[in-house]
Amino acid sequence: MGAAMKQILLVEDDPDISISLKMSLGYKKYQVTIAHDLASAHKFFSDQNFDLLILDVNLPDGMSFTFCNDIRKQNANIPIIMLTALIDEESAVQGMASGADDYVRKPFGINELLMRISKLLERSSKSAPEFSFGPLKIDPKKRQAWVENFELSLGKKEYEILLTLVRKQGEVLTRNEILNVFGEEAQVFDRCIDSHLSHLRKKLRAADAKNILITPVYGVGYRLDLR
Q1: Which of 33, 21, 53, 75 is nearest to 120 (CA)?
Q2: How confident is the model over 38-66, as pLDDT tens digits?
Q3: 113 CB contacts (<8 Å, ≥6 apart)?
Q4: I want to staple 221 with a disulfide (CB 3.0 to 4.6 A). Which of 18, 112, 119, 174 is the partner?
Q5: Which domains does the chain have, with CATH numbers?
Q6: Which residues are registered as beta bridge partners of 224?
Q7: Separation of alpha carbons 87 and 112, rounded Å
Q8: What count of Cα atoms within 13 Å lies in the side-chain half-sphere of residue 113?
Q9: What is the pTM of this model?
Q10: Do 64 and 55 form a contact (C-beta atoms < 8 A)?
Q11: What's the pLDDT tens digit per position in 79-112?
Q12: What is the number of alpha carbons within 13 Å of residue 187 lying toward its C-beta?
């Protein structure tokens, strides 16, 4: 079976540029989802898993710097490329400071962009180590989690929360740190944290991982424990 197509979220409000890029990337076997504004970008990123993001800086509902920063808090490894018609150095510095890996000025050559995408995806695949906690293993490159040989079927937010807990290796994960998983959606999902953790507990029990506990730490947050 061949490798799965890499998933790219393209956030670009210019229809000519977005359609042209989607076609060019499609020829290279990338699967492209187009968002024309930040609101759509937030929804797509919340609902789907992506391997790389391409963000236009100026969008109808704002600049993408804050969105980029939110994504970086949720996922330290996902490659992010910013596209812009701005030529000032300050914008480039702000883009990189917000968490972008690369900053490409318009107009650009498609072959140059394809090379940058390829290099970032290659680097990302090499820089995402596997994590483990007792019998639980997580592969960030595949965005999959297993208990022994049983693969967990996790929703996007469940996966992100579990990965963050495992990365803490038994240290307390505060509620604010969990809210970072949701980015700007935090104010909407604050009351859903307990629901997501409840679902995670049920899925761990279904995988016969009874020795892995998600322990509440009163007034602080949660901790992953082995018993």
Answers
A1: 53
A2: 999 998 988 788 899 999 999 999 999 99
A3: 21, 81, 104
A4: 174
A5: 6-126 (3.40.50.2300), 131-226 (1.10.10.10)
A6: 214
A7: 18
A8: 25
A9: 0.66
A10: yes
A11: 999 998 877 778 778 888 888 999 998 888 999 9
A12: 1
